[in-house]
Each structure stands twice: as structure tokens, then as C-alpha cells.
Amino acid sequence: MSIDVLKSNFLAAIVEKFIAYSAPAIPAMIAEMINAVSLYFVIFIPTDSAAIQNGEVLAYPHVYANRVTRNEGCFYARNAIDGMTVTDGHGNYPYHSWGGAVHEDLTYAVYFGRPVSIDKLVLYLRSDYHLDDQGREHDTYWHTAFIELSDGFTTEIHPKKRTDGQTFSLGQHTTSWFKLSRLDPLQHDKSQNFAALTQIEVWGSDIGK
């Protein structure tokens, strides 16, 4: 694929992406994408929604989630790999996240499109702990989650109630995909019990680099 085609696809994807956000957010989004485009193409993919055409994945990394809250753009799976780590709210930019509402079968997968070497995971869990008129926090958090890699590795992690990134060491693995499942939200009366993912970072390198 030529660089001109890549540029064209990138610009088209930016226009599509803005549909998920409120109008005042657009200038800030443009500035961030222009200033950090080289970083995004290496580590994050803010245009993941344009990665599939006619059922075929055309760009990696690509993410998939089995559920999206009300199928709204501000809760799409792609939001968790666009580099934004503002956790203390929900809804449109800069608070967009992956949200699957209140369900027990949530699954989130990252497909790298090639074997990569990885050794750690960083999760930024959405942390909208503002109180409603009944004194309830909007969010809760997943206090357990199950990790699976394509090389057969599995483990369980235990995130905490935090607003910053949480790092989990995985050991050295070669994998072509990464999956989060068995996401168990901590339920309590003083919360509306929504749990969501603001950002996921899988750290490692390409094989042979």
C-alpha cells in the first residue's frame, strides 16, 4: 500500500472518528493527532475503526470487544488504544473509553497482526467516581480479570481502585494476540457499578528488533 493511500485512509478515518465526539473537541483532536501521528502508528492506532472493510482486517493492531454500551462511539473498543489516558469521567472526548455496560461476559482482544515479544501490560481503568444525586459513584472497577495469549499463556490479574495506570508483569512471551476476559466488577451499593477501560498498553517489541 502506497504512502498516499495510507495518508488518504488516515484522513478519512479522522473524519469518521469525529462522529463519536462532540464538536468542541475536534480542534484538540486534530492537534493531538498531527503532533503525535508517528508515535500512534508505532504504538497506538487512533483510526482503528477504518481497519476493517468488507469483513477483512486491513490494519494492525486491531481490537475487538464483544459488547459496546448502546453501540455509541464514545464507548467503542478502538478508544482504548488511541493513547488517551484521561480516566476521571465518561462520555465524549477526552473521556471516551471502551465500555460494555453491566454484563458478565465481556471480552476485549488485541490482534497484533504478527508475532510480537511482550512482557508487561498497563491498564488505565475508567475512574468516574463523581457522585450522582443519590450519592453513588458512576463507576466501579474490575477487581479480577483473566489474560490469555496466543502462545497458550494464561494468568489472572487483580486491578485496584486507582485513577492512574496499573502495570502487570507477564514475563517474556511471543504472541500474535492478547485477550482480556472474565472481567469481574466489584459491586457495591454506593456505585452505579459501571466498569470500563480507558486505555490498554501492551509493552514489548517486534520479533528480531
What does this structure look like?
This protein is of the alpha+beta class. The protein is built from 2 helices and 11 strands. The chain has helices spanning 3-18, 26-42; strands spanning 52-53, 56-57, 62-65, 98-99, 108-125, 137-139, 142-149, 154-157, 166-185, 191-194, 196-206. The strands form 3 sheets. Strands 3, 4, 5, 7, 8, 9 and 11 form a 7-stranded antiparallel sheet that branches. A two-stranded antiparallel ribbon has the order 1-2. The longest helix is centred in the N-terminal third of the chain and has 17 residues, at 26-42. The model is unreliable at 1-8 and 32-44 (pLDDT under 50).
Principal-axes shape call? globular
Order of helices and strands: HHEEEEEEEEEEE
Rg from Cα = 17 Å
Q: Spans with pLDDT under 50 lasting ≥5 residues?
A: 1-8, 32-44
Number of strands: 11
Describe the biggest sheet? 7 strands, antiparallel
Strand content: 35-45%
What kind of assembly state do the chains in view correspond to? single chain
Distance between the termini: 23 Å
Helix content: 10-25%
Give a brief outline of the structure:
This protein is an alpha+beta fold and 209 residues long.
